[in-house]
């Protein structure tokens, strides 16, 4: 064989560095988005493999994930703080409940209205919040979560007062062949996918870049021409919109709303969920939803007398082991595993 032919041959891939045997590592790399498709395929299969109660739990995980997605947009990407996110969740839930109970509105039409009402309220809160920082902003948002419960009890003609409102759950259409729990799961999944796509597009736009600039350094962002008050207000509005949408789906799934379901504990739990899940990460809202759904029930099983103590201790342990949240811990573990395999 001539020297020219030899030089034209492709070099052999180094063992352990590349080649077909390592393509799956690149595909599952935490720096790529392929894992989202894998999670989506698994999510489509799960409701046909689990008992109804587990399907219900996963449905609630999706509901919380949508709410945490909005909180992640505000806290993780915008650098703001909110201890009143549960209030917007309640606004979406009650908007849907009142429309379905008082006006017999088709449940699908309640979703855009609930999201719009929460968006407007978030916009109204965002105006004064744009002038506040840190502890002051946290106290204002906390106050909203505190006075919401007595406010809902006061307007008994609309909200049902302390007794709340009981609603009929959406029934699956005959052509679907699905059980009620499966239909509600797929409704929640559709809303969650749409919400994640919306936020992904938002973060890739000028709005996302402005929010990141605000989070990193407000002074530098203002020097670069970012309108601080405008984007802070917009962050609150978009965050509230997603919380309202989650609250609407919550009403579909539970079929009941009452003021005691939306106390200040809900806002604190949601904030803990996104911090534990991973601020500013794609997987953070999903992992946070799993945490919010399953950890309190686990704490209840461990100690029925003091579930809050167990819940708090678990948060401390997770924050000690994974300061950047479960998403950061999973990312580091995956990268370490990939590096180990490449060295073999």
UniProtKB/TrEMBL annotation:
Location (main, coarse): membrane
Any GO MF annotation of the entry: branched-chain amino acid transmembrane transporter activity
Keywords: Cell membrane, Membrane, Transmembrane, Transmembrane helix
Superkingdom, taxonomy of origin: Bacteria
Keyword Membrane listed: yes
A GO cellular component annotation in the UniProt record: plasma membrane
Keyword S-adenosyl-L-methionine in record: no
Protein name from the UniProt record: Branched-chain amino acid transport system permease protein
Annotated membrane topology: Multi-pass membrane protein
TM spans (from-to): 34-50, 56-75, 82-100, 106-127, 134-152, 183-203, 234-258, 270-296, 308-330
InterPro entries with a match to the protein in the record: ABC_transp_permease (IPR001851), LivM-like (IPR043428)
Localisation: Cell membrane
């Amino acid at each position: 064989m001539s020297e020219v032919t030899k030089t034209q041959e492709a070099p052999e891939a180094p063992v352990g560095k590349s080649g077909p045997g390592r393509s799956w590592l690149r595909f599952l790399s935490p720096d790529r988005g392929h894992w989202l498709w894998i999670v989506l395929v698994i999510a489509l299969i799960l409701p046909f493999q689990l008992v109804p109660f587990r399907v219900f739990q996963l449905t609630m995980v999706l509901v919380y994930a949508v709410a945490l997605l909005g909180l992640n947009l505000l806290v993780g990407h915008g650098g703001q703080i909110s201890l009143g996110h549960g209030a917007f969740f309640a606004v979406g839930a009650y908007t849907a409940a009142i429309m379905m109970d008082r006006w017999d509105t088709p449940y699908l039409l309640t979703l855009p209205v609930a999201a719009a009402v929460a968006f407007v309220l978030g916009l109204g809160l965002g105006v004064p919040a744009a002038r506040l920082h840190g502890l002051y902003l946290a106290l204002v948002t906390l106050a909203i979560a505190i006075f919401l419960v007595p406010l809902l009890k006061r307007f008994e003609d609309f909200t049902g007062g302390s007794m709340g409102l009981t609603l009929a759950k959406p029934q699956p259409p005959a052509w679907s062949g699905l059980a009620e729990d499966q239909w509600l799961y797929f409704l929640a999944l559709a809303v969650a996918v749409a919400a994640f796509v919306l936020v992904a597009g938002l973060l890739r736009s000028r709005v996302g870049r402005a929010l990141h600039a605000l989070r990193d350094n407000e002074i530098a962002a203002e020097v670069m021409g970012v309108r601080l008050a405008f984007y802070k207000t917009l962050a609150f509005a978009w965050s509230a919109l997603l919380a309202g949408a989650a609250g609407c789906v919550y009403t579909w799934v539970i079929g009941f709303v009452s003021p005691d379901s939306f106390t200040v504990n809900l806002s604190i739990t949601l904030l803990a969920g996104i911090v534990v899940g991973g601020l500013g990460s794609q997987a953070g809202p999903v992992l946070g939803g799993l945490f919010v759904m399953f950890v309190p029930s686990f704490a209840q099983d461990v100690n029925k007398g003091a579930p809050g103590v167990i819940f708090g201790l678990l948060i401390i342990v997770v924050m000690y082991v994974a300061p950047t949240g479960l998403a950061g811990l999973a990312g580091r573990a995956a990268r370490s595993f990939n590096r180990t395999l490449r060295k073999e």
